Amino acid sequence: MQGVKAMVSHLEEALEKMKNTGVRITPQRQAILTYLLETMTHPTADEIYKALEPYYPNMSVSTVYNNLKVFIEAGFVREMTYGDNASRFDADMTAHYHALCKVCGKMTDIEYPPLEEAVHMATGQTGFRAEGHRLEIYGVCPDCSVEK
Amino acid sequence: MQGVKAMVSHLEEALEKMKNTGVRITPQRQAILTYLLETMTHPTADEIYKALEPYYPNMSVSTVYNNLKVFIEAGFVREMTYGDNASRFDADMTAHYHALCKVCGKMTDIEYPPLEEAVHMATGQTGFRAEGHRLEIYGVCPDCSVEK
DNA sequence: TTATTTTTTTATAATCATTATAAAATAACA
DNA sequence: TGTTATTTTATAATGATTATAAAAAAATAA
Q1: C-alpha A112: how far from its chain's center?
Q2: What is the CA B23 to C1' C17 distance in angstroms?
Q3: A146 sits within 7 Å of strand C by its CB
Q4: For B6-47, what is each residue's pLDDT tens digit?
Q5: Is the CB of B85 less than 8 angstroms away from the CB of A82?
């Protein structure tokens, strides 16, 4: 949870960085970024769009998507992807985790002792009743590291 | 990595359990499950469909989806979801993890020391060059635990 | 300032994974 | 064998995201 002060400075920092890298600071961009910094709910693109629609009556959903991509590339925003790839299925029900290659999309098993402690701490902290968890490493697989 | 022996027994076990719970063992079901047990590539629904198409020329994609759901409910298969929900965006770039409520969809922050060790071990094991990682707890949030 | 160029936004259509629906096929059971 | 329940198929619908092209806005040059 970040305070108002940190939030404002994050906004200023972001605007500064955008200015320096030649990315225009449009009203829509400022609104989307401000909304993301203000809200704690990890909104979807559509939620952002709906929240800003009253203030920007003819803003397009594309604008939200386009600018989210800009922010992600600039490192201001992080995406938790659930929507742009197909689900993958695994018949190995033993406890294990996965590494995903961002180049070729390959998914590799990781053998690692279950993160009981982390899960326990998380449930205590959030009050969640945990039914499962996933750890995923994102990066480049050895095959894709070779070339280039 | 599971051996052929374990695989066969998993198949038999699954077929047995299906028989006991009144789920019919159709050729398509057996083919999908066998393929999932044989392959190590964590295939998508479409990959499964394409792999089995030559042998079952008029099988439908729906059949793949339907039966994957059956297997998941029976506990034979696990789904790594990337495709049935919208992405969520977070402007808090500090290292933290998330808990997701399967009832209301709410996403809650978890403060936890970064899993450096797990990531390090994973990169050593897989040869991946890691650029990031995610830990997610799945379960029911306190609000949704109350009612029912 | 005005004209020109570049970037951004908008509106709309296209794509892709997934789900819903209903008819046809199959299997179980009486 | 006839009847019922389940499963498969084919097709359409949905929903998130991306692509495209024209319009608008901002930056730059003259």
Answers
A1: 24
A2: 26
A3: no
A4: 666 788 888 888 888 888 999 999 999 999 999 988 999 999
A5: yes
